[in-house]
Amino acid sequence: EDQVTQSPEALRLQEGESSSLNCSYTVSGLRGLFWYRQDPGKGPEFLFTLYSAGEEKEKERLKATLTKKESFLHITAPKPEDSATYLCAVQRPGQGAQKLVFGQGTRLTINP
Amino acid sequence: EAGVAQSPRYKIIEKRQSVAFWCNPISGHATLYWYQQILGQGPKLLIQFQNNGVVDDSQLPKDRFSAERLKGVDSTLKIQPAKLEDSAVYLCASSRISGRTANYGYTFGSGTRLTVV
Q1: Mean pLDDT across the stretch B55-72?
Q2: Buried b / exposed e across A72-85, counting CB within 10 Å, b at 16+?
Q3: How far apart are CA A42 and CA B116, in angstroms?
Q4: What confidence tier does B100 reach under pLDDT thresholds 50, 70, 90?
Q5: Average pLDDT for chain A
Q6: Whole-angstrom Cα distance, residue A67 to residue A20?
Q7: Which of A42, A46, A102 is facing B104, going by the closest CB pair?
Q8: More confident residue, B67 or B1
Q9: What is the least distance, in Å, from the CA of A64 to any CA of chain B?
Q10: Chain B nearest-CA residue for A50
């Protein structure tokens, strides 16, 4: 069974303090690993898709990386507006169209 | 491009009552998903439609949950009768492509927060 575990569950940082969020996964043949951002009272918002080990993608202060067993979301010099829950999800072949299995999320708080 | 629309935003019902949620996906998106997100957890897929047909409903509690997608556009999710453990946010999402996810994942609505008392 596919499993996605995110750590830590919650993280508090000071503005400008860089850190990383972890997503460990167990899946038979990874088709894609996804990162989403979720603000309170809203649905998840797509950030990145990674397809193969060694791949990296960047968007503003965020950079996502992928290995064969885990993915990291690095946040550099965060600002208070980066506070949100960050979700990762995996997809594997043969599950019909695009079914994603999500982790429980990391709740990130950036203090000014 | 208009987003995924869901209604109502909030609903409070007593246990054993019934409730229905509505979703209007992004125009042209063939695939529609209903996810359940319990507080502090990630979303869990309940059912996936491709146009009018069901692709995956393996995690839908079929004794109390039902869903339909008429004419391959709007969808409704119903719970009857509701239990306390059904308290959650129900998220609808849609995507354009079946099969390969492309580079954008899917687009979620803001969800319906259900409280069963």
Answers
A1: 92
A2: bbebeebeeebbbb
A3: 20
A4: low
A5: 93
A6: 14
A7: A46
A8: B67
A9: 14
A10: B103
